[in-house]
Amino acid sequence: MTYIKYLLLFCFAFCAVSLSAQSISDLESRLKKATKYRDKMLIKYDLARAYLKTDADKAARYAQDAADIAYKMRNKDMQCKIYYLDGEIHLKRRDNNKAEARFKSALSIAKEADNKAIVLGSADQLAKLAYKDRDYKKAYSYAKESLSVVKKNGLSVAESSRTSGSSRNDKELVRLENENVKLTNEKSQLVQENRRLKEKLGEPVDIGLTKKALDKKEAEFEAERRKAEEEIRAREEKLAEISEARQKAEERTQRYIKRYKDLSADEQEQAYEFELKEKALLEEKLEAEQNNKRLGLIGIGASSLMLLALLGLFSNRRSRRKLQEKNKQIETERERSDELLLNILPEPIAKELKENGKAKAQKFDSASVLFTDFKNFSNISEKLSPEALVAELDHCFKAFDYIISQYDDIEKIKTIGDAYMCASGLTDRKVVPTNIVKAAMEMQDFLEDYKQDRKKKGLPFFEARIGVHTGPVVAGVVGFNKFAYDIWGDTVNTAARMESNCEPGKVNISESTYNQVRYKFTCNYRGKIAAKNKGMIDMYYVEQAL
């Protein structure tokens, strides 16, 4: 009897595999014949579902292709379904981080598309993942959101499942309700435990902060802000030596430019004077030889004229060779001065400055500004000698220079102490801030590798906060002897606030930047954050490129 059971199970499994293989073969055959984008999208979606149980890698590839087509067609309903399926695929591959990111994207787009089934399923999956990570607060939040969809308009659990078209059964939803009740009980127990502890310590039972406590917290926050400002001022004073070195470099640049101008004028004048002297000398010799010719024989006169011609030719060649050498020196100095100019100015500005002696200010309606700043720089600077500190800063800033040099739309603006500033969109053509966000993430990747290497050696390391904001700026050259290219505007101040409100190792972007890169990167909405002199600002952390 037992053998018969095993035989039946084997036959059932073999039939299921055969039917699945036949279905996949049929779908792939249909895909080759499909010509319309919609047909290709639906077939690839079905192939991803078919491969889900047998080959997760192929399922992921088909799901990605289907998601790309859905994005191009702006079909949000299919987008959320595909992202949900991709989340299940990553669960199959035991990659919970990517699965969580896909379910979040599915939840967000499903809300826009009003697809209650995907909202319900995504919230449920996110609650499960949060529960596995023991993040009960987040799990409770997602479970609560899931139940709010289920019970909307007074529907029961089973009725909501059928109305939304969700694939989950009634038992799954009942389990979700039980988990919600369990989480609510755990929260109640924690509140009671907190109450008992406060009663033992003689504190008031009210667990909410009173207005007085909030005022106290605000005062503490203000004190911390002032302390941070004092640290920044102290840090700037300690880095005066670095600023002085930069000024000296700029002075050298000015000297090179002045030398180029002086050389071009003086050398031409010297060459001209040399030619006049040589010409006068030849004329004097010719006149003397002519006088001698009248008194001498015709042969002696002819020999004298030939000799004078040879001397003139030799002298002319020598002066021409000297002029060529001088011109070569002038060209070398010109190339050196041009190279120095391009190190401190964008190429169009440098060209305009050389031609006209000045550069006009320009306004750009959509520029993206990036700020970086190192955490605990004052403490690290106290542990290192001045030479070692400058060497570490030089190492990091050279890496930043190399990263932005890979993108032709990003221009380095300046460094201020341990802060690094660059911008994109400083051209007449429209530039999307995708590249500057990529550069910011590459900077954080570089600093993470640098951090791990320094930790192994037991040495202090830098961790940076990076902020990006997009908006209008004014750009131009200021100064006479030590001119510099810079940008101004409220966009620059807001970008600085993005950086100051960022955690080390993160990239914090504003809502204006997020609206332009939202389809290129997975971003985590932080909510409205208080920024100095700006009020409440919507901020997002960039997680990864899509």
Task: Give short descriptive properties of this protein.
546 residues, alpha+beta, Alpha-Beta Plaits, 8-stranded mixed β-sheet, extended
Structure in a nutshell:
Helix content is 70%, strand content 13%.
CATH class of the largest domain: Alpha Beta
The proportion of strand residues reads 5-15%
Integer-rounded radius of gyration: 37 Å
- What count of helical segments does DSSP give? 18
Structural class: alpha+beta
Largest sheet: 8 strands, mixed
Q: Roughly what is the average pLDDT, rounded to an integer?
A: 76
The N- to C-terminal Cα distance equals 54 Å
Spell the H/E element sequence.
HHHHHHHHHHHHHEHHEEHEEHEHEE
Instruction: Compute the number of structural domains.
Output: 3
CATH superfamily of the largest domain: Nucleotide cyclase, GGDEF domain
Number of strands: 8
Helix content: 55-70%
Question: Would you kindly provide a written description of the structure presented here, covering whatever features stand out?
Answer:
With 546 residues, the chain is α+β, with helices and mostly antiparallel strands. It folds into 3 domains: 20-187, Serine Threonine Protein Phosphatase 5, Tetratricopeptide repeat (Alpha Horseshoe); 242-344; 358-545, Nucleotide cyclase, GGDEF domain (Alpha-Beta Plaits). Helices cover 70% and strands 13% of the residues. The chain contains 18 helices and 8 strands. Strands 1, 2, 3, 4, 5, 6, 7 and 8 form an 8-stranded mixed sheet that branches. The longest helix is centred in the middle third of the chain and has 56 residues, at 240-295. The radius of gyration is 37 Å and the shape is extended.
